[in-house]
Design a protein that fits this description.
The complex is a heterodimer of chains A (96) and B (842).
Chain A: E1 22-24, E2 33-39, H1 43-51, E3 59-65, E4 72-76, E5 79-83, H2 85-88, E6 91-95
Antiparallel strand pairs in A: 1-6, 2-3, 2-6, 3-4, 4-5
Chain B: E1 11-18, H1 24-32, E2 36-40, E3 47-55, E4 58-64, H2 76-88, E5 92-98, H3 102-114, E6 119-124, H4 126-131, E7 134-136, H5 138-145, E8 148-151, H6 160-172, H7 187-198, H8 208-217, H9 220-230, H10 235-251, H11 255-274, E9 275-277, H12 285-293, H13 298-339, H14 350-366, H15 369-385, H16 387-400, H17 409-415, H18 423-428, H19 436-445, H20 454-465, H21 470-493, E10 506-509, H22 517-551, H23 557-578, H24 590-608, H25 613-626, H26 631-634, H27 640-670, H28 672-684, H29 691-699, H30 705-714, H31 725-736, H32 740-752, H33 757-767, H34 770-797, H35 802-828
Helix pairs in contact in B: 3-11, 5-11, 7-8, 7-10, 8-10, 13-14, 13-15, 14-22, 15-22, 19-21, 20-21, 20-31, 20-32, 21-35, 23-27, 28-29, 29-30, 32-34, 32-35, 33-34
The chains are: A alpha+beta (96), B alpha/beta (842).
Chain lengths: 96, 842
């Protein structure tokens, strides 16, 4: 079926675990700055993340976690976005 | 669009597009002023706001499109916005950009430019950007984009006429030399596909370059359009697939990612050339506030404090205000009572009794207006300031474990989490929840919140049956409903709502900014108006039905004769008493006595509705002037004979009152609704409901307020001795065996029982389906009855008292909720990578 969802071939060859400094956004501790490597999200989630500025090669900062531990608040450019852990673990990041 | 194609267009269609929070609505208000019309887009539940204005002899129709971040096909709002652009082909699109986060706004602009529409850019929030030290070079931006860019401050109306000028100029411009995204090495393929599409019948109907880009990206909505236009397996579609596959083969990367990268590079380049940041890296005010209110330990405190302040100001102080507000409503009532045909001796003309019934039902609801104005203003302040998004952030985890969403907070607060609200605006406010499944769960559980109208009924029952445990019972009722709503939401989302579309929680936390008086006032008035409309239409209409069902078929003849006999006797007593007074001659016939009685009744009613000595004196003067021949019987003063009449009159009036009450009770128990209530007794006895309770429950479907009124009529005995309703219900129940356990069952049923008619209609509007509306009536009724039966039958079998059973039931609910919540977060922790594809594939 040619009409497959977006992100079908995403991340081909982009080494998972090739670089030991790679992890998902979920594991980044509060106050740390990271750079987005790629998304593992598809479809609506991917689009939504891109719309809000989670574009590969962008720098983001994890500000804090909500009092109950989830969602996570991040700074993208000069605004703030909250996202759940379940979405954060779809974003592969590179720590400085 | 316009027929005079060569000359200037004098009739324009303008679409207002942009992201959420970019100030689209304020720009819309600024452009159109007060001439707005809000409706739903046909077939969907997204708001469509249209407005008109006339400027330099051009009539401009402006449509406010749903706020979207992009124009893909993933969300309903995006599809609606895109469909509008493609099918209506507006003359100009006004793209509202948030200048404080320009880059993100530009993603959207580039997409619209790609669709080849004439656009004018409103660069909004220039003031905020300036405060943050961001400077945007407007001229350069306009030059780079190739469109007019107008700096605006929507909230202050700055840039209004400049924007209107730009709209007209853009609409009449022949040459559009706008910016175009180039897709680097893919560019030849895009051009080739565009040419291919140009040969088909899609030429002239759709922006072809955009179509080519979307097809290569694999956008499902574009594929659908091509399928519809050119059929299955068209040459263009095949070609697009080939291009995509080849590119991905050669470059080892997703083609959509590549194209996004091209747009992102262009947006970055534009921002870098047009924007200068002055003070970089400094903590903004927003950061400082967030460091405090979102602090792990302080956050719950601020949250509770906020809710407490809302409760204090809206409910407690608002209730105080109703004391000043009520006399006005009472005045309206007596004004209408004057217009209606006069009361009869025992039976009033049908028009009069129905008219007053309608006024009373409406007044019961309108009485809450002060509370709602305060409540809705405070909530608008929370929303506009940006704190509401923080509440969603704090509570999302809790809500999420029960299938809800962080943004369910606002509907719940409006619905009256613990203090009383109204489900109608609550259900309306679910519109903002992006996750369809959570949105449905919220819509179906908001009605469990304690609406203001339930409170008087609870208060009545608690004052009769749980006097010693008043605060406990109140605590039980106000918190039980939250646990119940969470449990029900969990139940619904894992059963009937399981297959619904979900969306990720990716939400912007907007910068704090002080709310404007106009913005807050407008929202508060709008929501209060919804509430008033509910009273004006549905509640009054249904109250007529309930009235009819309570009136007919009326009293049996022999009963009526008996009442008439007793009334005649009272009349005779009156005549005998005043025989010796000099006024006896005036009251020879029945009609003159009835007139006097009615006047006395009105006078007393008017007295009740005013406060203060001066007002009372003024009232006396008014009656003196209007009824010079009768006034001495109302207030006899030194006139001895008049005193005799006055005494006899008071006696007569009270006998008439009690006779009327008795008649009413017989009539209700004889009525259609009474019959239904009685016939339900065999079933409802499991929950301990007698027919009177059944009638009250049925009549409260119109509006909860009626339940207390109906109970008031049904528990008549002792009303003459001025016993309060509490005492009456209490004493009568003693004989009838109505125990605290009964009361508990009724209260639990009432807490879970279906939303009132107005809410169910709002549910129909918001879900767009009668199926869910019916569900929202039947499911809670069944559930409420089940819970009430378990409590009553179980409690009676185990020989437990009402308060014991309340404790057990409450404990069970709370434990179940906690257990479910913990279970969910424990189970969710080791997350596998979920396979999202816009739908839930599980």
């Amino acid at each position: 079926m040619p009409g497959r969802g977006k992100g079908h071939g995403r991340g081909k060859g982009q080494g998972h675990g090739r670089n030991c400094k790679c992890c998902t956004l979920r594991e980044v501790s509060s106050g740390k700055k990271v750079k987005i490597r790629c998304h593992h999200a598809k479809g609506a989630v991917r689009q939504r993340l891109l719309d809000l500025g989670f574009v590969p090669q962008t720098d983001i900062e994890v500000i804090r976690r909500a009092p109950l531990g989830d969602p996570i608040e991040c700074r993208v450019a000069n605004y703030k976005v909250a996202l759940r852990k379940s979405e954060a673990c779809l974003i592969e990041v590179e720590q400085y | 669009m316009s027929s005079s194609n060569e000359a200037r267009k004098d009739n324009l269609l303008v679409g207002l597009a942009g992201q959420q929070n970019a100030g689209k609505s304020t720009t819309f208000n600024m452009l159109t002023g007060a001439n707005q019309h809000i409706a739903n887009y046909p077939g969907v539940t997204v708001d469509k706001k249209t407005g008109f204005y006339r400027y330099k002899d051009v009539r401009v129709e402006t449509v406010d499109l749903p706020g979207t971040y992009s124009l893909t096909s993933f969300s309903l709002e995006e599809r609606v916005a895109r469909d509008f652009l493609l099918t209506e082909q507006p003359d100009v699109i006004v793209n509202v950009l948030d200048s404080s986060s320009l880059k993100r706004s530009l993603y959207f602009t580039l997409q619209v430019l790609e669709m080849d529409f004439p656009i004018a850019v409103a660069l909004n929030m220039m003031d905020v950007a300036k405060r943050n030290g961001t400077h945007v070079d407007v001229e350069k931006l306009s030059h780079r984009l190739g469109v007019d860019v107008i700096p605006t401050v929507g909230r202050r109306g700055k840039g209004k006429n400049e924007l209107r000028d730009a709209i007209i100029a853009t609409a009449n411009r022949k040459e559009h030399n706008v910016l175009r995204v180039t897709y680097e090495e893919l560019e030849p393929e895009v051009a080739a596909l565009e040419e291919e599409l140009g040969k088909t019948k899609m030429q002239g109907k759709y922006p072809l370059r955009w179509m080519a880009v979307k097809l290569i990206e694999g956008d499902s909505e574009a594929q659908r359009i091509v399928r519809e236009e050119l059929g299955e397996n068209s040459a263009a579609q095949t070609k697009a697939n080939e291009i995509r596959d080849k590119f991905e083969e050669d470059h080892y990367m997703d083609v959509a990612d590549f194209m996004l990268g091209c747009r992102d590079r262009l947006a970055t380049d534009i921002v870098e050339s047009c924007v200068t940041e002055e003070k970089e890296g400094r903590d903004t005010i927003t950061d400082m506030i967030d460091n405090i209110v979102l602090n792990r330990f302080a956050a719950p405190f601020f949250l509770v404090a906020t809710v407490f302040v809302i409760y204090q100001l809206a409910i407690v102080q608002g209730y105080e205000l109703t004391n000043y507000w009520w006399p006005y409503l009472a005045k309206v009532r007596s004004f209408i009572a004057d217009l209606l045909p006069a009361a009869g001796l025992l039976e009033d003309p049908y028009v009069r009794s129905m008219g007053l019934w309608m006024v009373d039902s409406a007044n019961g609801l309108l009485n809450y207006i002060p509370i709602f104005v305060i409540l809705f203003s405070l909530i608008a302040i929370l929303e506009d300031s940006g704190y509401m998004a923080r509440i969603a952030f704090i509570l999302d985890k809790l809500f999420h474990s029960f299938g809800l969403h962080g943004q369910s907070t606002l509907p719940y607060i409006l619905g009256g989490v613990f203090a009383g609200g109204c489900a109608v605006p609550g259900v309306m406010a679910t519109k903002g929840i992006p996750d369809e499944r959570s949105r449905m769960a919220t819509i179906l559980t908001v009605p469990y919140m304690n609406c203001l109208a339930k409170i008087p009924f609870y208060t009545l029952l608690i004052n009769v049956f749980f006097v010693e445990y008043k605060s406990w019972a109140m605590l039980f009722l106000s918190t039980f409903t939250i646990f119940a709503a969470l449990l029900i939401s969990k139940l619904l989302t894992s059963t009937v709502l399981k297959t619904m579309e979900t969306a990720p929680f990716v939400m912007e936390l907007p910068k704090y900014h002080p709310p404007t008086l106009f913005g807050v006032g407008q929202r508060a008035v709008e929501r209060t108006w919804q509430y008033i409309k509910k009273v004006g239409s549905i509640v009054v209409a249904v109250s007529v039905c309930v009235f009819t069902l309570l009136q007919f078929p009326g009293l049996p003849a022999e009963k009526m004769a008996e009442f008439e006999g007793r009334m005649d006797q009272a009349l005779v007593t009156f005549q005998t008493k005043i025989k010796k007074s000099s006024y006896a001659g005036q009251f020879g016939d029945v009609q003159s006595v009835v007139n006097l009685l009615n006047l006395y009744h009105d006078y007393k009613n008017d007295k009740m509705s005013i406060r203060g000595k001066e007002a009372s004196l003024a009232l006396n003067d008014k009656y003196k002037a209007e009824y010079p021949g009768m006034y001495m019987f109302l207030k006899p003063g030194a006139d001895k004979d008049a005193k005799v009449v006055n005494r006899a009159l008071r006696k007569l009036s009270s006998s008439r009152k009690s006779l009327r009450r008795e008649m009413k009770e017989v009539r209700i128990s004889n009525s259609f609704l009474g019959m239904v209530g009685r016939s339900l007794e065999p079933v409802t006895q499991w929950a301990g409901f007698n027919w009177k309770i059944n009638v009250a429950i049925m009549s409260s479907f119109a509006a909860r307020e009626s339940s207390v009124a109906t109970i008031g009529v049904l528990y008549q005995q002792g009303a003459d001795e001025n016993k309060s309703l509490e005492e009456r219900v209490g004493s009568e129940s003693g004989e009838g065996g109505f125990t605290p356990l009964h009361a508990l069952a009724v209260m639990i049923f009432f807490a879970l029982y279906p939303p009132c008619l107005a809410t169910t209609i709002m549910i129909k509007v918001q879900t767009g389906s009668y199926k869910w509306m019916t569900f929202s009536i039947l499911f809670p009724t069944a559930l409420g009855f089940l819970a009430a039966s378990v409590v009553y039958t179980g409690g009676s079998a185990a020989n437990l008292s009402g308060i014991q059973m309340m404790g057990i039931f409450y404990g069970f609910t709370v434990l179940l909720t906690i257990a479910l919540g913990l279970f969910n977060s424990w189970r969710k922790d080791p997350e596998p990578l979920p396979d999202f594809s816009g739908r839930v594939t599980e």
